[in-house]
Amino acid sequence: MLPVTAPDRSSPVDGPVAVLANPSAARGRHRDLLPDLVRRLSAAGRPVRLLAAGTAAEAEAACHAALAGGAGALVAVGGDGTVHRALQAVAGTAVPFGVVPAGTGNDFAADTGAPADPSAAADAIAVALRADRTRPVDLARLTGADGTTRWFGAVLAAGFDAVVNERANRMRWPRGPRRYDLAILVELARLRPRRYTLRLDGVPHEVDAVLVAVGNCASYGGGMRVCPAADPTDGLLDVVVGGRFDRRTLLRVKPRIYRGTHVGHPLVRSYRARTVELSAEGITTYADGERGLDLPLTATAVPAALHLLR
């Protein structure tokens, strides 16, 4: 099967730099840095325009509007959720994209080589803009059963972690991190393997599994290397499947994901494919930590879908 390539849509070479910033990322830890980050980005010699958005949907719409209005580059200041929203507009275009990691989880930024310090990342983007320098990075395109399409940059979670996120998002109490902790306890009590059907480049696999992740990059959840061999420049997606774990085994394996050593467990299988068709009953996926599409869906590696400012 030939790789799916992204369409080449040109962008204004000297257009303004649109900046999508999430002031509440990392619980507002970097909010006061935003004026300085804008100043650093403006060192590229282009106008810098902050995009106004109060919700995730508004953020996505603002990015689309900025590109339609002639933005010459798009920069996301925040965590993986902010990056995810920006990717929906910039994926498959020639508009250069930069990431200033300023969130709780900065997995896409880390796995694609962005400086960990926000100020250093903004300086690096400005230098790349002045030099008109980008490097191509792959993305994954999701297609739902109803034809809906979405993009993700890091990891798609379609197992226990997705189920926990979905439960936590439905809960109204408690607030803050304790809600997620409670969701874990509830779902651990209900833990059972689910039957998944995968088609990897057309080859069918039936598996009973607790963990299922599709990675364009290696990490999710703030440094958990769930797909440790994933490379966002190889034109492939890594699929990691954790099989019939019971509660005790899952609790023992889970800490190993931070080091990526869980793939050595006898119940874990790893695959690579350009196209991943995935189905199971009752699963809503999470992509880059954001609520995604319901299964079934198809994930396709799209080489060079993003022009990253580096």
Features:
310 residues; alpha+beta; 10-stranded mixed sheet; 6-stranded antiparallel sheet; 31% strand
Summed up:
The chain contains eight helices and 16 strands.
Order of helices and strands: EHEHEHEHHEEEHHEEEEHEEEEE
| Oligomer state of the chains in this structure | single chain
Structural class comes to: alpha+beta
Distance between the termini: 30 Å
Radius of gyration in whole Å, from Cα?
A: 19 Å
Query: How many DSSP H or I helices?
Result: 8
Number of strands: 16
The portion of residues forming beta strands comes to 25-35%
Q: Estimate the helix proportion, in percent.
A: 25-40%
Question: Can you tell me about this structure?
Answer:
There is one protein chain. The chain has helices spanning 34-42, 56-68, 80-90, 107-111, 118-131, 160-170, 177-189, 247-253; strands at 17-21, 48-50, 73-78, 96-101, 134-144, 149-152, 155-157, 194-200, 203-209, 211-215, 237-242, 268-273, 275-279, 284-287, 290-294, 297-309. It is globular. Helix 1 (34-42) runs parallel beside helix 5, helix 2 runs parallel beside helix 3 and helix 6 (160-170) crosses helix 7 (177-189). The longest helix is centred in the middle third of the chain and has 14 residues, at 118-131. It starts with 16 loop residues before the first strand and ends with a strand. Helix content is 27%, strand content 31%. Strands 1, 2, 3, 4, 5, 6, 8, 9, 13 and 16 form a ten-stranded mixed β-sheet that branches. A six-stranded antiparallel β-sheet has the order 12-11-10-7-14-15. By secondary structure, it is an alpha+beta fold. It has eight helices and 16 strands.
